[in-house]
Amino acid sequence: MSILRKIVRRVIRGAGSVLPPKNGKGADISSCEVQKADGSPIKIGERYNNQVLMIVNVASKCGFTPQYEALQSLHARYKDRGFEVLAFPCNEFGGQEPGTNEDIREFCRINFKTDFEIFDKVRVSGNDAAPLFKTLTSEPNGTLAGAIKWNFTKFLVARDGHVIARIEPPTPPDAPRVIALIEDALK
């Protein structure tokens, strides 16, 4: 069995996981700086102040790529209530995001009619992980900690910048439990 297949099987065994922080509140991402697709930097806490966020590492050639449709649907449904989807392309899992930033944005616009922010391509695990993803997975001794294992790992972030939940790739972004968390965060 190929290494890629073994990894996918391991991820799928954890299917359906919606993990809340073990100690009530996850890490605070407010001070994290990220790069837009055009290379310009923004600070999450300044640009998305008082917003509920769903942060996702994405890939265009992944078995979970159809989740873009649900992400766009959530974005459209809740954006007027202060909800944003932030997508971070990642090519480290099976080389499933080989395109340029413009290729990725065009793919998403054409195939899924996305209008949420798609950022600069990043690494999400290991020593070279982007600071945002290091912070998202940093809850000491908690359920949110640990390396991201595949594309379409989702993090729900409260208006105060603290992580509410980590949603593993097989769980759709519009699963009933996720919708309940979003609704609760938007109150």
CATH architecture: 3-Layer(aba) Sandwich
Number of domains: 1
Instruction: Using the alpha-carbon principal axes, give the shape.
Output: globular
Distance between the termini: 47 Å
* Count of individual beta strands: 8
Query: What is the percentage of strand-forming residues?
Result: 15-25%
Profile the largest sheet: 6 strands, mixed
Helix-strand makeup class: alpha/beta
Rounded to an integer, what's the Rg over CA atoms? 15 Å
What strand order characterises the main sheet?
Answer: 1-8-7-4-5-6
Total helix count? 6
CATH superfamily: Glutaredoxin
Reading the helices and strands in chain order gives: HEEEHEHEHEHEEH
Oligomeric state as shown: single chain
Structure report:
The protein has 187 residues and is α/β, with parallel strands linked by helices. It has a single domain, classed as Glutaredoxin (3-Layer(aba) Sandwich). It has 6 helices and 8 strands; from the N terminus they run αβββαβαβαβαββα. A 6-stranded mixed beta sheet has the order 1-8-7-4-5-6. Helix 3 (67-78) links the parallel strand 4 (52-58) and strand 5. The longest helix is centred in the middle third of the chain and has 12 residues, at 67-78. It is globular. Mean pLDDT is 89; it is low at 11-15.
